[in-house]
Amino acid sequence: MAHSTTGSFTGKVVFVTGAGSGIGRATALAFAAQGADVVVADINDQPAQETASMVRQLGRRAEAVACDVTSGEDVAAAVATTVETFGRLDIAINNAGVEQPPTPLAETSDADWDRIIGTNLRGVFLSMKHEILAMGENPGSIVNIASGAAVIGIRGQAAYAASKHGVIGLTKSAALEYAAHGIQINAICPGIIETPMMDRFSGGTPEGRARVIAQEPIGRMGTVEEVAAAALWLCSDLGGFAIGHALVLDGGQTIGI
Ligand code: NAI
Q: At the fourth CATH level, which superfamily is domain 13-249?
């Protein structure tokens, strides 16, 4: 069996990228609250250290690793640290990502394209590659954090949407390749979630928040805990039949116009 039968993650080792903030931090804490030990990988060391300390306050072991997911060397080293520190890798949450300031395609700079694709798509590719190699013959579960922008186009978000659509292609293809090896690979497509990224994107003002919430039929932003709960389900035995799934969790944002 890939996972515990109780839904608890005691004894499991979880690697989370972008775990210094928002969805990544909440997911790291949610797994820790269910008994897992966590490796907190983030390009920013200080927030990663803070998340690791929060995991320890929950009584679990944690290691913070400075890791830029656009660098194969960094990712390989972070995954190696996971195995060296905790002896195994059971679950990986590939969450690190960057937003795109609203920009029409023809005005998007080459540098912005490279930054967004580099983090959101290449970063997930590199993460999955080294995680799958580390899992080897052992069972495991990988969840990639995509976006509602992975299933629809969004004006002003061509580069971001392309990066997130790409994550679904990576997820489905790798899921096919590794399902028979016991490595379960899925994605979550969150809608508008209350995080520092969404604060930056909306401008954090009441008007900006109202503008993004207006895209949500449910009339509110999602919470980081709601996304973390979906990741926990996918990685639990109860989610064991989900393979290559792109789980849209978006308050209805993408279901129609
Ligand atoms: P956030 O900005 O609060 O946190 C992102 C974390 O990723 C930060 O700690 C940052 O330091 C880290 N990071 C950025 N670039 C990195 C790199 N190259 N290497 C390693 N770490 C890096 O963002 P949030 O909102 O928690 O987003 C997490 C993921 O969820 C992203 O992939 C984002 O695209 C996705 N998402 C977020 C939504 C939202 O409404 N907040 C909606 C849909 C998807």
A: NAD(P)-binding Rossmann-like Domain (3.40.50.720)
